[in-house]
Amino acid sequence: MTLVDEVKNAVTPRAALLVIGVLGLQLLFIASYVGALHKPEPTDVAFGVVAPQQMSRQLVAQLDGLPGGPLDPRAVSSVAEAREQIMNRDIDGALIVSPEGRTDTLLVASGGGTVLSGALEQILTQVEASQQRTVRTVDVAPASPDDFDGLSSFYLVVGWCVGGYLCASILAISAGSKPANRQRAVIRTGVMALYSIAGGIGGAIIIGPVLGALPGSFWGLSGLGALVVFAVGMTTLALQALTGIVGIGLAVLIIVIAGNPSAGGAFPLPMLPDFWRAIGPALPPGAGTWAARSIAYFRGNAVTGPLLVLSAWAVAGTALTLLLSTRRRAADPADGAARSTSTAADHS
Hints:
By secondary structure, the protein is an alpha/beta fold.
């Protein structure tokens, strides 16, 4: 037997295609992570300006014209309004101009990402220095001292996502890569739901009472975790029902390769390139990270959109999983033959 024959026997065409697919995922992983994170720069950061009317217009125009467009400034009526908009996550920071002195106040929220708050401080310090003014920084939603760089919420959500697609993958391949019938799909959905609840509560226990890394509502984080795990898990089950074992790779593509670098974890969304900034909020890791930070540091504000995104993934994944299992059962001749044999045996 020649070497070529040996290779053909050792590596089937299906295995070769899967290997090529893995290589493609590997290269996409590198391109996505490096592309998103290799050069973080603030762009169009929502930013408030509190100043007397004439001074406010001039300052907004000046900040809007900064090289590279790091800020998207807008006038805010009062200090209280600026604080409220930051806590509602409508803006990421605000400059409070003192009309009498030469020291202004910069409001930031490091709970939304310490890298972004640090970048705002650097930008405004330079702007103020050019006007022979100084700035002092006030953190209105500070990150926990045990939450280095505000990354704990991101790692928490990554853990939930990993658990979701790994559990779904195990359930799907335990008896074939596609659900054989609707009953099995319903059982897997139920198991996924129970696993999601356990995973959500477990993650909240570790991040809160055990490590003290994140403040905020324990049950709020637990519920968020259950939804993240279930959304990712049911999406994975649906992809596997649709494409077989290739669905595992598609889940990795959506959640890990596209979702994680665009989640705003390592660098908040305003510091990511346009493509990743656009897709991040629509994917489970990005929606989960935003919601976790809101629960921990922003009184649970601005979570409606992310929760709707996660719910949409969960509902679509569940519906597609059940629909595909029903159609496959109706089209599977093996099931029909088995039912006919059973009926004949009963009559005999």
